[in-house]
Specification:
This protein is of the alpha/beta class. The protein contains four helices and four strands, in the order E-H-E-H-H-E-H-E. Helix 1 runs parallel beside helix 3. GO terms for molecular function: nucleic acid binding; RNA-DNA hybrid ribonuclease activity. It comes from Lithospermum erythrorhizon. This is RNase H type-1 domain-containing protein.
Amino acid sequence: MSPVSNFEATNNVAEYEALVAGLELVRSLGVWQILVRGDLKLMMNQIRGDCGIKNESLVKYHAKATSLAKSFVHIVFEHIPHSENEDADQFSKLATTYNDELPKEIYVEVREQRAYEETPAKIVLEES
């Protein structure tokens, strides 16, 4: 599922939104160990604690992402050059595609709020 927002976002905010959505998704699938590869060097350095964060909004995203990261038994954040990140290219193309043009196999989650503002959704399963 690819997250899309109904609010304006800088590239850095979009990267953090994708990180948080990805961590939430894999965590909900029961994953306990993960390698997170990203091509935005600044964000990877921030997440690893290698550099500080000046932007107030990014501080909130960082707090959300690091909180989620603590729920994993083992998590590694690795920077990879954009030229080597083919998955990112595919997702960036997807982000600029109108929903009517998307293949039916692709599900898009539209987020109304920023990731750090959202409260976790409660899922109720009923046995029938």
